[in-house]
Specification:
5-stranded antiparallel β-sheet; 5 strands; globular
């Protein structure tokens, strides 16, 4: 009985920490969108948070350079951190932007954060 309680407590603790990590990444991405994308974004929807360790420094720099060409960022992006961590968390997001013709257009982006989940360090178009 005592073993079951300890195991259940451990599972709940792990689940709670994962939820906290997911919330941090989604909040960081939402703040990043609000600060860097002009105009009405409509509803922002997020997918599931995941992680990767396979982003090289060169790939990281290329991701940042390519992000500057995305129409929703108008050639300028303000990141809260300039250094990627070994492990990056990422979350896909969908939101609306106003295109060159003045029409609302849905865009999909993937936001990468450092391992704390609090700092967006890169974004890519999807």
């Amino acid at each position: 009985m005592r073993t079951n309680i300890i195991a259940l407590s451990a599972i709940l603790l792990i689940a709670a920490s994962c939820n906290t990590e997911e919330s941090k990444v989604k909040n960081a991405a939402k703040d990043f969108i609000e600060q860097n994308v002009a105009g009405d974004k409509g509803d922002i929807t997020f997918g599931n948070v995941d992680s990767t360790r396979y982003i090289t420094k060169e790939r990281f720099q290329k991701m940042r350079a390519n992000a500057l060409t995305l129409p929703d960022f108008n050639g300028k992006i303000s990141y809260t951190s300039n250094t990627p961590t070994y492990k990056l968390l990422y979350v896909p997001a969908t939101y609306s932007i106003t295109n060159k013709n003045g029409k609302q257009q849905k865009v999909k982006r993937i936001f990468y954060s450092d391992e704390t989940g609090e700092n967006i360090v890169a974004v890519i178009g999807n």
